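=== Given protein ===
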Amino acid sequence: MSKFVYADHAATTRVAPEVLEEMLPYLSSEYGNPSSLYSIGRASSLAIAAAREKIASLIGAKPNEIYFTSCGSESDNWAIKGAARANAAKGRHIITTVYEHHAVLHAMDSLKKEGFEITYLKVDADGQIAPEALEAAIRPDTVLIAMMYANNEIGSVLPIREMAAIAKAHKITFFTDAVQAIGNLPVNVAELGVDMLALSGHKIHAPKGIGVLYVRTGVRIANLIDGGGQERGKRGGTENVAYIVGLAKALELAVEGLPDMERIAAMRDRLAREIVSRIPYSRINGGMEHRLPGNLNVAFEFIEGESLILLLDMAGICASTGSACSTASLEPSHVLLSIGLPPEKAHGSLRLTLSHENTEEDVDYILEKLPPIVQRLRDMSPLYEQVGKN
């Protein structure tokens, strides 16, 4: 392997050295339980309070609106199930989108078994939803709207501020999964007008196993995890002090790095142009206008995405063929199907996600290795052989 290029930052990221440095004391000498009254316990409690305050300031929230969770999926589940159950007396109708993360979609499936009715808003070929579509779907018994800020597979960025304003006008709780948006876009909950927001640490160079749920003051939400009264009685379980401290530092670095998104978007655009020009029978999935800066999703006809990923890996390039949470599935991506791709084309998709750690040399290397790998796979395809004969 002559070179290594990591181009799957939407799946996960390495822990930043600055983040690890902040965490280390709480993995060694400062090991006290935050609920304990003695000094090392109080030190842990103070560290959590400082992290909570920092995270709140970075996203425009109040410290008492920040709740620490184990991951984005837990935050999604808590927000959706907690808000639905807390407001069930008002109504049992929920609105979401067809291309949400599975943590959201499966939470909706769970609520269906409890008697809730779900409306799934469709997306267009660019992965967009018009605010008018949301307005038309609202009913008198609608109690929750859950819409992701940015899609994890095709990077589509939804007009969340406009959607939240519609929900507020109807006095409906609005939740957004911002796991992919954090670190790629400016995120301020006060400016967005959302009632709840989820984020995850491992997408922004914090460790896996830590997340946040923002819940605006006054929003009613039932507990998902009961226990010893941690997180102001809303989420039981001894706090993961080191990871909480690490997440606060990672979010600080992510916000500081937002100006670099212009460079990252330029690399993404170059990749898109060159791939489509060099590789026939390829197309960009989703629109390029309202898209996360580092996200590129391409469909290649006549090949299987899994084979493509394995050959890229042999060349030292890490990428994915869909959501990292479902790469073991043989089913075509529900996201790609939602924007109109037929299953055979959805199967041949490639997601490349860049970050501030990527360089123009990385782009050069991808462009060097990808075309011959695609051609090699097509040479083994009987469908492609038929195209050549025609």
